[in-house]
Amino acid sequence: FKNGLNNAYLDELKVYSKLMSKEEILADYELNDDEILHLSFNDENANDVSGNGNHGEAFDVTYEQGVDGKAAHIVNANGSSSKKAASYINLGDQIDFSTNDFTISFWYKSNVGNENGGTIISNKDYDSGVNDGFAIGSFTKEIRANFAFGGSRKDIKFTPIDGLWHHNVITFDRDGKMITYTDGAKSGEADISKYANDNINLGDLVIGADRNKCYGLLDSYLDEVKVFTSVKSGYEVEKLYQEFKTVIGDRLLSASFDGNVEDASGNHNNGKIQGNVEYVDGVKGKAVHIT
Hints:
Layout: E1 8-10, E2 13-16, H1 22-30, E3 35-39, E4 57-59, E5 62-65, E6 70-75, E7 88-90, E8 102-110, E9 118-122, E10 133-138, E11 142-149, E12 152-160, E13 166-172, E14 177-182, E15 185-191, E16 206-207, E17 219-228, H2 234-244, E18 251-255, E19 277-281, E20 286-290
Antiparallel strand pairs: 1-20, 2-18, 3-17, 4-7, 5-6, 6-17, 7-16, 8-13, 8-17, 9-10, 9-16, 10-11, 11-12, 13-14, 14-15, 19-20
């Protein structure tokens, strides 16, 4: 190889098999700069790869094949109950929700319904859905989104529990609506504007159990968990779904360089490091530095 780079940085390299529209180019340029949490689980831990350092602490979590690389496998023999969970991920109180808009995105799979409600992600005491805070719960037949304050609650039933991987997005427009999406398509909405001034910094944000580490998941898989500080549009939600949908139709390569040169497009076009290459802070997570 000749004409190599000298002291150059690259990040978020993508190759497509089509001509992109202006809107698609703009979406790639923006790079989800409002992303404050991204758990890929590919390194078999709960480290945040968004570049914001919002790392979680995993308790009795195993890692198996997911929609891209590894997924977190959470199993609790006493899940779906008020007993303490053994398996969960605690993100602590480091993410500031306050009264701000936000969006949660994740892939989920389970063969086991949680009759009394198992918690996918929450910062509330999920002993009752009327308790203050928000929760995304896994029930017998479907996933439910919940938001409550002052003895009042709003709920949406959306994605089915059917043993298949499904992409789930919940947007929280604090002076508007809570909207759910399943596999890129809108699947429900509820007006939460009455709670616009209620501060939801209520304690630990937990995956696989509620704030008190109870109401755990019985047997579930999660992958590509993301939190954003904005209300994602329908178009943006579709992009999030397509990012890890198997196989990504027109994306041939997606290299984020977050500690490796693996292809995240689903097409397995992985790279190989040659020579003096290091990983440094980039525009999103890590970038590759070539000297």
